[in-house]
Design a protein that fits this description.
The complex is a heterodimer.
Chain A: E1 3-9, H1 14-24, E2 29-33, E3 36-42, E4 44-48, H2 49-56, E5 69-73, E6 75-78, E7 82-86
Antiparallel strand pairs in A: 1-3, 1-5, 2-3, 4-7, 6-7
Helix pairs in contact in A: 1-2
Chain B: H1 12-20, H2 32-35, H3 60-83, H4 96-105, H5 107-123, H6 127-155, H7 164-168, H8 175-185, H9 189-218, H10 222-252, H11 256-274, H12 276-285, H13 293-312, H14 326-329, H15 333-343, H16 357-366, H17 371-387, E1 411-412, E2 415-419, E3 422-426, E4 429-433, H18 436-444, H19 446-449, H20 455-460, H21 478-485, H22 501-514
Antiparallel strand pairs in B: 1-2, 3-4
Helix pairs in contact in B: 3-6, 3-10, 5-6, 5-8, 5-9, 6-10, 9-10, 9-11, 9-13, 12-15
The chains are: A alpha+beta, B mainly alpha.
Chain lengths: 89, 517
């Protein structure tokens, strides 16, 4: 199975997002570089709106991810509740 | 962040459907094929444009909202950087030369990409891709502007930042990235999307922006990191557009497969050749290094590109043949490119130097199979000679590859001590290429590539001197005249870093920033 990944800038906005992603995807691994965090995961990775909202204590629009996104790999499927990356093979 | 997520009246899927469909109309005064004359000549067959879906489902209203917020954040940082003399926090003034190359070689291409996506959007009959191309076109304009703004602060203090646009259209090494985009822009809209949207944005852009921007962060260049990441936040959308585009073409008609495969093969190799400049920046030009070119290639191309091509195999797409050579090249190209720029350092608008012992040890550790064996002795010799006052500059002009326009500096895949030359005959003339990959591209479209504006040929033809130059006068110095035509400040912009005005000024100003005298 191939790996998907997503990378975020490292800042106060992404700290709870990264925390939520790692909690929701136990198979994912975070790799820190200067100013950025890259999260790798076998097969697929899902980011859930509710999990982020619980951590930040306000409502969150998943399109806000675009503010701090650096790069992604895999096919994307996004709706109001989740942002999912996967390879189909 | 001062954002408020409000409860939506429509979900994003519905909103996207409403705002990207039904916006166009069937023309009545003119037939549709006259309104969209570029939609069919490349041979790509599209049956249902509505099958195009942007996975981000971004609509123009959200686009403006998020882009405006990105700009506010970026310009706050740029102001702070300039107001606080941020340039004196750089690791070392050698670093500046990497961003001189960025400003002259990459930022103007953002502007060309802006024009290219505007043209592609104009030429696609479908609304979905047209909206996506419009957003990317505006993004690319934003990238060009923010990069020029961010780097203009350096132009107040250092050499080589003063005339990037003029240089792009003339200078020998800048013809490499320029011709890459000209080649894409002069193709049809579908090929453009594979060239830039897929091969460059999806397969290769990570290699340019991610490690390089992380490198800028490591080297204290807050301005570059910030515009880099601000631009990169758009790239995830661009990559998605590139991938969507290729899936769309392949799903629309089985006849599209061989055409798409041919374009992928061509543009993957074209892109890899352009990235030689990035390999050199990462391995030699960043005083504090994040990762080697080889490591970046393994993560972002071998692993990630491997996953992508494994996925596309279900459509019948295969990994381009020429990329197999890259697993050999990754251990050589950065060293070969830097050796070339070092020798031609008299004709570059940035400074060059030989690595210190520490840096050579880093290179040995990162390139255990090649650095000590093929490069260290040569580099040490050049450095020793420079210390004795014999800094070597080549005053000849190199032969250029007819396709990628890089000087013939690459070696044979099976022999790193022999320069690789390939030759094709076309219409009674000989044309030279640097590799099997470039020769293959030339042989497929010779009518296109014989038109290449090759800087070295142009110099020899006398087309690169200021107006009114008389090459027959006694003591005529052709190189000096070419540099004048390039708008280089000869003696300040070029030559070795050691002894440069940048080196002296940076040391003096940093001294003033930390002392009271």
């Amino acid at each position: 199975m191939s790996k998907v990944f997503i990378a975020f800038q490292r800042n106060e906005d992404t700290r709870p997002i990264i925390e939520a992603v790692l909690a929701d995807n136990p198979h994912a691994e975070a790799i820190e570089s200067p100013a950025m965090v890259k999260i790798d995961a076998e097969g697929s990775l899902v980011i859930k709106r509710e999990s982020i909202e619980e951590l930040i204590g306000r409502s969150f629009d998943l399109q806000e991810l675009q503010m701090s996104l650096i790069t992604i790999s895999g096919h994307l499927d996004e709706d109001d509740d989740q942002f999912k990356l996967s390879w189909l093979n | 962040m001062d954002m408020h997520a409000t409860k939506k009246k429509l979900g994003i899927k519905e909103k996207y459907a409403h705002m990207t469909r039904g916006l166009d109309w069937e023309t009545s005064y003119q037939p549709m094929d006259k309104v969209f004359p570029q939609a069919t000549f490349e041979g790509i067959k599209i049956h249902d444009w509505d099958k195009w879906e942007d996975p981000f489902r971004l609509t123009m209203d959200s686009y403006w909202k998020y882009q405006a917020e990105k700009e506010r954040k970026l310009y706050a940082v740029l102001d702070a950087f300039a107001q606080n003399n941020g340039h004196l926090g750089l690791t070392d003034a050698r670093y500046l030369n990497a961003i001189k190359l960025f400003l002259t070689g990459i930022s103007p291409l953002e502007y060309v990409a802006h024009r290219g996506f505007a043209a592609a959007g104009r030429n696609f009959p479908g609304v979905g891709p047209r909206v996506a191309c419009l957003m990317q076109s505006v993004d690319e304009m934003r990238h060009a502007q923010t990069q020029i703004h961010a780097l203009s602060n350096y132009n107040k203090h250092y050499d080589g930042f003063h005339d990037f646009k003029h240089m792009l259209e003339r200078v020998w090494y800048l013809s490499v990235p320029k011709s890459f985009f000209d080649d894409a822009f002069s193709a049809g809209p579908f090929e453009y999307m594979i060239a830039i949207g897929f091969s460059f944005e999806y397969v290769l852009t990570n290699l340019l922006f991610v490690p390089f921007m992380s490198g800028a962060a490591y080297n204290g260049d807050m301005a570059t990191v910030t515009f880099g990441f601000s631009a990169q936040s758009d790239e995830a959308r661009h990559m998605t557009l590139g991938l969507e585009c290729i899936k769309f073409m392949l799903e629309q008609d089985p006849d599209n497969l061989p055409i798409v495969q041919k374009w992928i093969d061509k543009w993957a190799w074209r892109g890899v050749r352009v990235l030689t400049l990035v390999a050199m920046m990462m391995d030699y030009m960043l005083p504090k290094r994040v990762m080697s070119w080889k490591e970046a290639w393994e993560i972002y191309f071998e692993q990630n590109g491997g996953a992508l091509f494994a996925d596309l195999a279900r459509y019948g797409i295969t990994m381009p043949e020429c990329l197999k050579q890259c697993s050999i090249d990754k251990e050589h190209i950065g060293h070969q490119a830097w050796a070339t720029f070092y020798q031609y350092g008299g004709a570059a608008a940035f400074h060059t130097w030989m690595p210190s012992d520490d840096e050579m040890d880093w290179l040995s550790a990162k390139y255990p199979n090649t650095f000590d064996k093929y490069y260290r002795a040569r580099f040490t010799h050049w450095r020793d000679e420079a210390e004795k006052g014999n800094r070597f500059y080549s005053n000849t002009l190199p032969m250029l590859c007819q396709v990628c326009q890089i000087p013939m500096l690459f070696t044979e895949p099976d022999d790193p001590t022999t320069i690789c030359y390939r030759e094709s005959d076309y219409d009674g003339e000989k044309y030279h290429t640097c590799s099997d990959g470039c020769k293959h591209i030339f042989d497929n479209e010779p009518q296109k590539y014989i038109q290449a504006w090759l800087p070295v040929h142009q110099i020899y033809q006398g087309n690169c001197f200021p107006e009114g130059t008389d090459p027959t006068v006694e003591g005529f110095d052709p190189l000096a005249k070419v540099l004048e035509w390039y708008h280089f400040d000869n003696g300040h912009d070029n030559l070795d870093f050691e002894g440069s005005r940048d080196q002296a000024n940076f040391a003096a100003w940093r001294g003033m920033a930390t002392k009271n005298t």
